[in-house]
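>> received
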Amino acid sequence: MLKWAIFFFLISLVAGILGFTNVASGAAAISKVLFFIALTLFLIVLVFGVLLGVLVF
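>> returned
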């Protein structure tokens, strides 16, 4: 999921440089959402791993 966030961030940068502001803002919004979903999932796995004391991966 983090790969997709980076992918949409790069699309946002390229679209912003080329002047496609609507595409850039849409891709930036998608990138932010995917990043925060990935961050939330990471924190949930980290907390459960620490609480259970077992290697999760």
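>> The chain has two helices and no strands.
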